[in-house]
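Q: My labmate handed me this sequence with no annotations at all. I'd like to see what the chain might look like in three dimensions before we decide whether it's worth expressing. Could you predict it?
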Amino acid sequence: MDSALIFTQDLKLGHYMKIPPRASFVAQAVATLLSGFLQVGVKTALFTTVSDICSEDQKSMLTCPHNRVLFSASAIWCVPSPLFPVPWRVHED
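A: Here is what I predict for the chain of 93 residues:
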């Protein structure tokens, strides 16, 4: 939600500065794609260069990343489902 609000603010600022909306959208899309690929590249470089990244006695004190996004997303969409049913949940009767 925060990203959508920032994007809307950027479009509004571009409108005030007489920048075409398509140019603003293309700039945002290119920046988003570039940052995504850059993040994956940095993560891949770290995993290939740091051999003991997941060990507790790693000398640079880097920790092994854990995927908490899937857990958070499943908690957000599945916990309130009895209150707010979603169409893709299998109902057990």
